[in-house]
Design a protein that fits this description.
It is a single chain. Helices cover about 70% and strands about 0% of the residues. It is mainly alpha-helical. It has 2 domains: about 45 residues, no CATH class; about 230 residues, MetI-like fold. The protein is globular. The two termini are about 25 Å apart. It is found in: Cell membrane. Belongs to the binding-protein-dependent transport system permease family. It is a multi-pass membrane protein. This is Carbohydrate ABC transporter permease.
């Protein structure tokens, strides 16, 4: 029997919709302003006439960004660490989470406590830097891939998922003569696609937005990811114009703010475009391990 919503419940829904709408606008309108400035002329940007729509529409800012080899190099570095780093994360996390989830593993409780400690107490920056230096990882892309190979939070999510797998499937695989690796590849991983997809997205977004580790450990501009390159453009008082790029009409008279905004859009757009298609995996990632039958 369906009950009619009460007046107080309807009032709550109205205020909830208004609040969420205002919150969404507070997040979306700044991005819309950045997008509008990236397509506006330098005069309009300098005079403060750009709000949410481009003024004197132009693509000259994107022409400069696309002609800058350093930005493309940083974009390639970001794509590389996102793909390779995510694969390393998933393999490392699954390699630790699966054996710890099995009751026959004698040392699982000790491992869980050790991982839990890392969530509460994190190592200071200076010891981390000394460790990276002694391992010869400074000025290497491995400094962006190895230290965060396993996230403690993602480890517990994956471990919880593995613990929910029926023991009968594992036992039947062993009775059929499967080795542990064959059982993981043929039985466990096919059943773990939801958690792998969810955590893969979490890891990929983290690698795409990597900034602090690159700022600490990477001094060579050739290895800068896109976020560090973007930071250099934002804090720079003057953006030098590449003489080879003057083939574009009026390029030497651009406003640096327009170039910065165009770079921000290029750095943000891939995640914005991918997220709607993968949103359901985010929801699954939050629900994985939360309900047991």
């Amino acid at each position: 029997m369906n009950r009619k919503p009460t007046a107080s419940w309807q009032t709550f829904n109205i205020f909830n919709i208004i609040f969420l709408t205002l919150l969404a606008l507070a997040m979306f309108l700044p991005f819309l302003n950045v997008l509008a400035q990236s397509f506006s002329s330098s005069e309009a940007i300098v005079n403060g006439r750009v709000f949410f729509l481009p003024v004197e529409f132009t693509t000259i800012n994107y022409q400069y960004v696309f002609s800058d080899a350093a930005i493309w190099r940083s974009f390639g570095v970001t794509v590389y660490i996102t793909i390779v780093g995510t694969l390393i994360n998933l393999v490392a996390t699954a390699s630790l989470a699966y054996p710890v989830s099995r009751p026959e593993y004698a040392g699982r409780k000790v491992i869980v406590v050790m991982v839990l400690i890392t969530m509460v107490f994190s190592a200071p920056l200076i010891p981390n830097f000394i460790l990276m230096k002694n391992l010869h990882l400074v000025n290497s892309l491995w400094a962006l891939l190895i230290p965060g190979a396993i996230s403690a939070f993602n480890f517990f999510v994956m471990r919880s998922f593995f613990m929910q797998l029926p023991n009968e499937l594992i036992d039947s695989g062993r009775m059929d003569g499967c080795s542990e690796l064959r059982m993981i590849w043929s039985i466990v991983l096919p059943l773990s696609k939801p958690v792998m997809a969810s955590l893969g997205i979490f890891y990929a977004v983290g690698h795409w937005n990597t900034y602090m580790n690159a700022l600490y450990y990477i001094n060579n501009p050739a290895y800068w990811p896109l976020q560090v390159k973007l930071r250099q453009l934002i804090v720079s008082e003057d953006i030098s114009i590449d003489p080879s790029a003057t083939q574009f009409s009026g390029l030497a008279h651009m406003d640096p703010e327009g170039i910065k905004m165009a770079t921000i859009i290029i750095a943000t757009l891939p995640i914005v475009l991918i997220y709607p298609f993968l949103q359901r995996h985010f929801v699954k990632g939050m629900m994985v391990g939360s309900v047991k039958s």
